[in-house]
Amino acid sequence: MARAWSISRIISIQTYARERFHEAHDLIVKAWSSDGPFAWEGKHYRFRYINLWPKPYQKPHPPIWIPGSGSPETMPWVAQQHYTYMVLPTLAPFELRRQSAEYFRDCCVKSGYTARYEQIGWGIGVYVAETDEQARREYEPHFWYYARNLLKTPPQLSFPPGHTSLATTVGMAERRRRSRPSSLSTWDEVERGGYVVIGSPETVRQRLEDYAKRVGFGVLVANFSVGNVPSELTQRSMTLFAKEVVPKLRPVNTDAPPGEAAGRKYHAP
Q1: Model confidence over 26-78: pLDDT tens digits?
Q2: pLDDT in the model for residue 261
Q3: E strands of 37-87, at which residues?
Q4: So what's the pLDDT on residue 166?
Q5: Cβ distance 216 to 120 under 8 Å?
Q6: pTM assigned to the model
Q7: How far, in whole angstroms, is CA 191 from its chain's centroid?
Q8: Angle at the Cα of 136 from the Cα atoms of 131 and 138, rounded to 5 degrees
Q9: Are 252 and 213 in contact (CB under 8 A)?
Q10: Omega of the bond prior to 37 within 30 degrees of 0, cis?
Q11: CA distance 75 to 62
Q12: Residue 231: in which H helix or E strand, if any?
């Protein structure tokens, strides 16, 4: 009996995942921006007493970033809210993810405004070493371990029934099939596809700046660890990135002050 209840409960959560997400969003934003206590009697969540303390420092609430992997249902909603959309997954080909960013930008236009740079986030694997050759030598074995051993999630667990609409599920499954790193066989394919950015500080800077200008993102979320890479290599890579790459990337894709932002237009090269 307990097992049957658990299965039915899981199916119910999957079926109403988007409804639950939107209600949870409304609840969290109200808790951040309203003085409590207050009660919440929603369809999926019910609380008799909510009184958040301490209140967030940012007013009316902290910035909200919504991650996504290309769902055509998520991006229009994020655009309407003027939130930042984080282009995920982090381990996918550049062009596929660039198309997602372009679609989000179109959603912003349909909502009546031009997306700010800070509204587009970009997650990607990054590894920095003293030279390009050293970076590949240290990073590549751990990339393949991740791609060939840790990405074996069955489709039925990646896209459980009811989690997304049928059209979205079919589209995402096809994009996932075409972009899975497990389908790659050579490092040249990884490099050409833009799955990760590795190399010397200057190589990494050049590639990230090129990607930023081609995509228009202003928020970079770098994944410095992959697979079974040793922690000492990750720490050294992060240190080189912070000291020799970040200072040169700061001026790239910076938004104008609010009073001037209305006139800014994005132009792809």
Answers
A1: 999 999 999 889 999 999 999 999 999 899 999 999 999 999 877 788 999 99
A2: 46
A3: 38-41, 46-50, 65-68, 84-87
A4: 56
A5: yes
A6: 0.81
A7: 20
A8: 95
A9: yes
A10: yes
A11: 20
A12: helix 231-240
Q: Can you give the pLDDT at residue 241?
A: 98
Which string of b and e fits 123-155 if b means at least 16 CB within 10 Å?
bbbbbbbeeeeebbebbeebbbebbeeeeeeee
* pLDDT (mean) for 181-185: 67
| CB count in 10 Å sphere of residue 32 | 16
- Which SS3 state, helix, strand or coil, does residue 119 take? helix
Return the closest-CA partner of residue 245 out of 133, 165, 118, 135: 135
In a 13 Å sphere around the CA of 231, the CA atoms on its Cβ side amount to 0
In this prediction, what percent of the chain has a pLDDT beyond 90? 64
Q: What is the pLDDT of residue 163?
A: 59
- Given the DSSP bridges, would you call strands 196-199 and 120-128 parallel, antiparallel or unpaired? parallel
More confident residue, 185 or 3: 185
**Mean pLDDT computed over every residue of the chain:** 85
Please report, for the chain, how many H helices and E strands are present, in that order.
12, 7
Angle at 159 between CA 165 and CA 72, to 5 degrees: 40
DSSP 8-class letter at 66: E
Closest CA to 223 of 209, 213, 237, 203: 237
Q: Are 86 and 123 in contact (CB under 8 A)?
A: yes
